[in-house]
Design brief:
Elements: H1 7-24, H2 28-34, H3 39-47, H4 66-79, H5 81-101, H6 104-115, E1 121-124, E2 140-144, E3 147-158, E4 165-171, E5 181-186, E6 193-198, E7 209-220, E8 224-225, H7 231-267, E9 269-270, E10 273-274, H8 279-310, H9 314-339, H10 349-357, H11 367-379
Parallel strand pairs: 1-4
Antiparallel strand pairs: 2-3, 3-7, 4-5, 5-8, 6-7, 9-10
The structure holds flavin-adenine dinucleotide.
Length: 394
Amino acid sequence: MDFSLSDDQKLIRDTVRQFMEAEVRPTVRERDRKETFAEAELRKLGEMGCCGMLVPEEWGGAGVDTISYLLMLEEVARVDAAMAVALGVTNSVVCMPLWKHGTEAQKKKYLRRLASGEWLGAFCLTEPQAGSDAAAIATRAERQGDTYILNGTKSWVSSGGKAGLYLVFAKTDPDAGAKGVSAFLVEPGFAGFRVSRYEDKMGLRTSRSAEIVFENCEVPAENRLGEEGQGLKIALEALDGGRVGIAAQAVGIAQGALEASVKYAKQRRAFGKTISEFQAIQWMIADMQTEIEAARGLMYYAAWMRDQGAGRMGAYASRAKLYASEMVNRVVYKAVQVHGSVGYSRETDVERMYRDARVISIYEGTSEIQRMIIARDLLGHGEAVKGVKVGSRE
Ligand SMILES: Cc1cc2nc3c(=O)[nH]c(=O)nc-3n(C[C@H](O)[C@H](O)[C@H](O)COP(=O)(O)OP(=O)(O)OC[C@H]3O[C@@H](n4cnc5c(N)ncnc54)[C@H](O)[C@@H]3O)c2cc1C
């Protein structure tokens, strides 16, 4: 058993860390306050290869292993979780399905642009009435000659309004349930595509979460990804890969919160000592680090499984996502506690981290859905949760 990182993995981690410290940390609080999307910073990370890390080099990607990809996301989220959202979506749930299911022409047209960071990608599955239950989406795609006409509304689209390509899921056969969904590559310039509004969120304030309306949106038939009816399979497979990325966001935020807490505890004085000398503070910090390491272990194990050729990570990724997303909420709670009133002020990073962390147990499959996947894997009760959005292996 070898727990060490390779020289290449360390180089990726250190290069991204250096960039985040030098070019992002100085502006992150101000951007959070003003809700400024990190356009220039994301572009630079894209140029460094962070948008298509798992995509082979022949398609403009970095062609690295899953652990390297997670190290990148951890380092980004340690400073700015909202940027990790844009990178996670582009890498995991847009580039990967496009690479896996795209035609040669689709890859030539879109994959290079995404993998090189020229464009960000967006993933459009959720609708106002359909979140966990993805088979309940109502967006329709009707074929008319060489074109599909899309009608419907997608909600909570990360990087909506900023992305260059949208992977959209719509029903081509509404009577076929989960097997009636197809996937489409949609450019924002296509007629009938419209961003209707942005969510006013608790956290991740610099990440855009858009509602997108398709009104007789014209999508060329050559932009269908995979076969008709394969859409939900493509979405679930993409989310299976995306989930370890969400665990990396959680570990990154938690690591940032721990480091801020250690620093503050050594400076702040009370009752004639630094607060780091109180056992109550020491125990909080000890628990924070222990939980972070546990989450990291689950996450790297899931990634390692994938790199060994396991294909889908299934319950491994769900365990990492479930534990890491709940862990980060416990860690940021303690980080604010260690900071006292200062932790409740927008002048500190831990205040932003507290807000940013909350969503991690919700998106890309809630904790409840992860538990269902894990239990099904353990108990073999596949049928009991069939049709649930995340984790179905059919
Ligand atoms: C900041 C943010 C960014 C997002 N980005 C994207 C994106 O880019 N693309 C995209 O498509 N979506 C995105 N989403 C949507 C996200 O994936 C959904 O919010 C998530 O899947 C949960 O769906 P829901 O919010 O509709 O909750 P619901 O499905 O309505 O669930 C509500 C509650 O019921 C529970 N529940 C539901 N079904 C079951 C069940 N069978 N058993 C037990 N409990 C159950 C849930 O766990 C939850 O606690 C984003 C959401 C947020 C908040």
